[in-house]
Design a protein that fits this description.
Chain A contains six helices and no strands. Chain A is mostly helical. In chain A, helix 1 crosses helix 2, helix 2 packs across helix 3 and helix 5 crosses helix 6. The two termini of chain A are 17 Å apart. By secondary structure, chain B is of the alpha/beta class. Chain B has two domains: 100 residues, no CATH class; 214 residues, Rossmann fold. Chain B starts with a strand and ends in a 13-residue tail after the last helix. Classes of the chains: A mainly alpha, B alpha/beta. Chains A and B meet through helix 2, helix 4, helix 5 and helix 6 of A and helix 4, helix 7, helix 8, helix 12 and helix 14 of B.
């Protein structure tokens, strides 16, 4: 029986995948399959939204256990759960478009996240200097030289119309960076195609796990 | 004659058999067990472990000495594998090549040396001090970077949009990037508002709804400050569309489904003209232009893969964080281009503000941004020079014993 259900799952997954894929290349409305494709896409959308709730539920479960079992950092779990509950209450009472919901976003979320990101400016430079102390091989030197050129070449400074740093920066962005980015993008594309094909032919069955 | 049992099926096999007579398992490989992994810092105190990190006090930060916490497994040479000494040496050489960061006792000792934490404090004060200084010294102004073709293309496209035309704006950046992204995009959105276009905001991240409201309220507040007759922005906020790339694929197919869901309840766009204008949006190509505001190259790629192929005459424009530029620029430079215009970071905002002459948010912060870059570059340059000189005069100690060549 288990084998039968497994076979049905494989057939459904492969059919749905191929149908959605074909929609990118052909007009499926001639065969009346376009509406089926739309329905599948809508289901995926709903499932993705449900996954957010599952994620939130898992967050609550993990932090609740951590708090109840008095593990290290249990206090942080309490803060996390209290923040979640408070935000949920505010959004339910005020509505997603309400002023209170917007207030929480403007006065809590943006300042907290922005401040954490701002610390990177300080921490990354400090960490770079520490890496220099520990390991200064040719690759590290090339990395740091590139960072220095990109930082100093961000603008035409000290009154120079086109500083050497700016020209070097432009070259780095235009040649090595673009070449590397294109390589990465090609790699991503090939990897995506390979994974897609493996799922479409049934070699990979993530839905069985 | 001694026998050996198959570890898989238990079948007794003659000694020195390579495979099991019953199940065919390889009798050499089946018995190999992973080598025991011993962290060199396992016996160290938490304080010593902490001090071996690049950022003392931050538990998840990288070790100052690579592989200080998780040394690669020790070489495993089961006698049943019957490898020769030469082969063992090859394996050791291969492991050394694939784990160049393998820790040495001397490195461990160096890692345990107390780190100069005052350096972080000094650097922090220096950075904050100089940046604050630039905010109060109005005369200190740095030049505007040259305006590239992609920024001019954005300006040309916006100039052609008639009043009342629908414009799609995807607010797809995380709240942490609010400052940079709003400085990059404010002049563009402000010009669209000034021209009386119908803005349709949407997002593929959960906080996108509030992010769009934050952006539009900021523009409204800035306009209220400088204009005697403030403009009331015409906009719809479709909010969060779940599913990432799949959500976009769905949106492209039936955008009006999403707009229609907002029409009865959205009070921001209450006039009949606006509703009629958006009521005509039945296809993604009915938008005059599409702007994607993002800091994430993957999100930009989702738009390029799911939406761009469906566009016939509607230009796709990107407003990006500086960190996303390298991965997105190839799409701008390819032939034919997948992106018709692009602004990048605070520099992009400054460039666009110099064209539109409306808001000056990015311009006001440009000097501080440039000073921060220059300061960071100079500090790293001085440090790199100092360490190179130091290394030149105090070269690292040579290995104690030269390894025998395999």
């Amino acid at each position: 029986m288990k084998q039968v259900w497994r076979t049905i799952a494989v057939i459904l997954a492969i059919s749905a995948g191929i149908l959605v894929l074909l929609g990118y290349f052909f007009d499926l409305s001639a065969w009346g399959l376009d509406s089926v494709r739309q329905v599948i896409l809508r289901w995926a959308l709903i499932l993705a939204a449900v996954a957010l709730w599952v994620g939130a539920g898992n967050l609550v479960r993990v932090h609740w256990r951590k708090m109840v079992s008095r593990q290290d950092g249990g206090g942080y779990s309490l803060v996390t759960l209290a923040s979640l509950a408070l935000t949920l209450v505010v959004i339910v009472v005020s509505g997603p478009n309400g002023k209170m919901s917007q207030w929480v976003f403007n006065h809590v979320q943006i300042p907290v996240e922005t401040s954490l990101l701002a610390l990177l400016a300080i921490v990354l430079i400090y960490a770079s200097i520490r890496v220099m102390r520990r390991r200064l091989n040719p690759f590290a030197i090339a990395l740091f030289l590139t960072v220095i050129i990109l930082l100093l070449g961000a603008t035409n400074w000290m009154g120079m119309e086109a500083s050497k740093f700016s020209m070097l920066r432009e070259w780095i962005l235009a040649v090595p960076v673009t070449a590397g980015a294109r390589g990465v993008l090609l790699g991503i594309a090939l990897g995506t195609i390979a994974t897609g094909v493996r799922i479409l032919v049934g070699f990979e069955r993530p839905y069985e796990e | 004659m001694a026998e050996q049992d198959c570890p898989i099926c238990g079948q007794a096999n003659p000694e020195k058999s390579e495979t099991c007579q019953k199940c065919g398992a390889n009798l050499y490989w089946a018995e190999i067990e992973p080598g025991e992994v011993i962290s060199p810092l396992a016996n160290k105190s938490p304080q010593e472990q902490d001090e071996a990190r690049i950022l003392p006090g931050i538990e998840d930060s990288l070790p100052a000495v690579p592989a200080a916490f998780t040394e690669p497994s020790a070489p495993v040479h089961p006698y049943r594998l019957m490898v020769s000494e030469t082969q063992k040496n090859y394996v050791a050489l291969l492991e050394k090549m694939t784990h160049p960061d393998q820790i040495q006792p001397a490195d461990l000792q160096a890692a345990a040396v107390r780190k100069p934490r005052y350096l972080l404090l000094v650097w922090g004060i220096l950075l904050v001090g100089i940046l604050s200084f630039s905010l109060f010294w109005d005369e200190l102004q740095v030049g505007i970077p040259p305006i590239p073709a992609e920024v001019l293309a954005v300006n040309r496209s916006i100039s052609k949009i008639p009043a009342g035309a629908p414009v799609l704006v995807a607010v797809d950046f995380q709240p942490a990037y609010t400052a940079e992204m709003e400085m990059a995009s404010e002049a563009v959105i402000d010009q669209l508002v000034a021209q009386g276009t119908n803005l349709v905001f949407m997002s593929t991240i959960p906080t996108g709804f509030w992010q769009a409201e934050h952006l539009i309220q900021k523009i409204k507040a800035d306009r209220d400050l400088v204009e005697s007759a403030p403009v009331n922005p015409n906009y719809y906020n479709l909010g969060f569309i779940s599913g990432g790339a799949l959500g976009l694929a769905n949106f492209v197919n039936e955008p009006y489904q999403f707009i229609e869901a907002q029409l009865p309840t959205e009070s921001s766009a209450s006039t009949a003209g606006q509703s009629a204008s958006l009521g005509n949006v039945t296809s993604i190509n009915d938008f005059s232009v599409i702007f994607v505001l993002t800091e994430d190259p993957d999100t930009a790629r989702d738009w390029l893969e799911q939406v761009q192929p469906h566009l016939r005459r509607t230009p796709l424009m990107m407003i990006l964080s500086a960190q996303a530029e390298p991965m997105v620029r190839p799409y701008l430079e390819m032939q034919p281009a997948k992106i018709q215009g692009m602004l990048v970071g605070i520099a992009g905002g400054v460039q666009y503000e110099s064209l539109s002459n409306q808001v000056q948010t990015a311009r006001e912060n440009w000097t501080a941004s440039v000073l921060g870059n220059i300061l960071g570059g100079l500090v790293l340059g001085v440090a790199l020079t100092a360490f190179l000189v130091f290394q030149r005069w105090n070269p690292p100690a040579a290995p104690a014993a030269k390894e025998k060549k395999p």
